[in-house]
Amino acid sequence: MYGKPLFLFDNMLATSPVTTDNGTAAGDYVLASLFDYRSYTWWLTNGAGNHRVTVTNDADRSADYMYIAGDILTGSTITLTSSDLGGANAVVHINNQVLDGQLAYFFEFASYSQRVWFLDVVTANPSALSHLIIGNKLELPRHLQQGFDPLGSKPRGRIIKSSNGHPLGTAEDWREWKQKISFRNINASWVRDTWKPAFDDHLKHTPGVFVWDPVEHANETYLIHPIFEYRAPHVQGQFTNLSFTLEGLGK
Prior knowledge:
Elements: E1 6-8, E2 18-20, E3 43-44, E4 49-71, E5 77-83, E6 91-98, E7 104-123, E8 128-135, E9 138-139, E10 154-161, E11 167-187, H1 188-203, E12 208-211, E13 221-224, E14 230-231, E15 234-235, E16 239-249
Antiparallel strand pairs: 1-9, 1-12, 2-4, 3-8, 4-7, 4-8, 5-6, 5-7, 10-11, 11-16, 12-13, 14-16, 15-16
């Protein structure tokens, strides 16, 4: 059973102070790289052992998911915990999850609100993390229609030839993933009360992550650009069609 698609754009790390208990490596591997939505910047753990990233919000902040990506060694474990400002009332949301060498992981948990959130990463060697997103997901109201392509992507680069025209190969800079998303006859109140506020506050100017199937393919995610525009024409009755285009990095 496929799940309904999700947008991951709400991130408490982008709006609250973030610290680490175990330092970072020298050079450009700064902690802020965790939440700049750039796959080519990293936070590098300072050696082996336990590394804790702490997010301290001004007030209680709710969350129901975590997304983490990077070069994390197979066999590393992660634990996500929240507590009040003094460390009491601790709740474990993700407990000693063993990672298996993928580049990205998506975790859902029951929505909870606390002021301080901790991520503990235990590694045998230094690990590099490019993304950490903790917040509230946006679930779309329908499953994706037939024709959605989660695997296809278009190479961006050039064909390399010798000075006299002989083929030498290709140079691929990156792969583009682009999909037109459309839904028919969805509740008009959802578009007005949920979609439009999310678009105005985040989707039109904030990069994020798209999870096309959180049930069967939870770790098949896409880093996407802000959504430039959408269409929501009225349908007879209390319904609306909704369409928009997603663009991001392919696999």
